[in-house]
Amino acid sequence: MFSSLSSSPPPPDAVKDVTLATFKADVLEASKQCVVLVDFWMPAHPPCKQLTSILEKLAQESKGAVKLAKIDIDKNQQIAQQMGVQSVPSVFAFFQARPVDAFAGALPEAQVKAWLVQRLKQTGGAGDPEKAGLETALKQAADFLAAKDIATAHSIYADILDMDPVNASAYAGLVRCLIEQGESAKARQMLDSAPAEIAKDKTFAPVRAALELAEQAGQTTGQAAELEAKLAQNPDDHQARFDLALACYAAGKRERAVDELLEIVRHARSWNEDAARKQLVKFFEAFGVMDPLTVSARKRLSSLLFS
Fold first, then answer.
1. Which residues pair with 40 in a beta bridge?
2. Sign for the pseudo-dihedral over CA of 121, 125, 126, 129
3. Which of 94, 43, 48 is CA-nearest to residue 69?
4. Which end of the chain is more exposed for a tag (fewer CB within 10 A), N or C?
5. CA 284/CA 286 separation, integer angstroms
6. DSSP assigned state of 180
């Protein structure tokens, strides 16, 4: 449950050896940002070593959502006495500078995980490592998709869906991968068969637009040279320019596709019932609201429409 889909290293301060001098900073202050596990242990005690190893693993996998403060009870009797520690190993969960729960004994990993999940829920899900890992994985997949590393993006999205079959972002991401691979028919089938729980999620809006564009652009694939020739003979052939925009989009030339449509708006704004403007809006939806090309193209379109 706490395993990460990310290959990034754990934070350098995920696990610390704590003393009385550092207890305030490493436990009390740190617990204002996340859950801090305080592990009272004896390095030479096998059950302690076993439990500490589990706690270290969970803290490192949480990517900063959970931190571990290890306290050698032989060297820090004062802290142990103040906390009322009766035996080792003993583990306290701190949040907002106070202990919220504790357990004693070398529990197996599954029980420790279950206990930690409950503590995270108890603290309002603060620093939930599962959520943090999921968000990291989704971002990585999106980055790989943007870089056209479709195979890696597909693999990450598939891993997420294995754990959470109704994760809308991962499902939409897989559809995007199919679109990028030119598998429009498979993408349509997958989109149309999305689980009912997520079928109406807003995450799918730009994916639907991208798929419609891919299906539309597929009709002009390989026609760019022919369309260029038509425009060379007649620059006012708006249908040829419109089709060229789609061909450019199909070839991954987004900027050129936008330029061609803006050119139609510039010279024949109402051509074919505002077809160029409507197509631009569909582009913007497929690109995403915050995409730099969407932002710049919207400004150019507004300038043309309201000049």
1. 71, 90
2. positive
3. 94
4. C
5. 5
6. H
Please report the domains of the chain, with CATH numbers, ordered by start residue: 15-126 (3.40.30.10), 148-201 (no CATH), 219-305 (1.25.40.10)
| C-alpha 63: how far from chain center | 14
**pLDDT for 297:** 94
Structure tokens at 96: 């907002």
The residue to which tokens 């309201």 are assigned: 306
- Tokens coding 31: 């617990």
Q: Which helix (H) or strand (E) holds 36?
A: strand 35-41
CA 111, distance to chain mean position in Å, is 28
DSSP codes joined into one string, 61-73: HTTTSEEEEEEET
Residues of the chain with pLDDT under 50: 1-8, 127
Q: How many CB atoms lie within 10 A of CB 273?
A: 7
Cα separation, 194 vs 167, in Å, equals 10
Q: What angle do CA 111, 112, 117 make, to 5 degrees?
A: 100
Q: Is the dihedral of CA 200, 204, 210, 211 positive or negative?
A: negative
Task: Quickly list H helices, 147-223.
Answer: 150-163, 168-180, 184-192, 204-217
Q: pTM of this prediction?
A: 0.54
How far is the CA of 285 from the CAs of 43, 61, 166, 202, 208, in angstroms? 58, 36, 23, 12, 9
Per residue in 186-242, pLDDT (tens digit) is 999 999 999 999 999 989 999 999 999 998 887 777 788 999 999 999 999 999 999
Q: H/E element holding 16? A: strand 15-17
Pairing mode of beta strands 90-95, 98-104: antiparallel
pLDDT at residue 5, rounded to an integer: 42
Q: Which residue matches tokens 């357990």?
A: 103
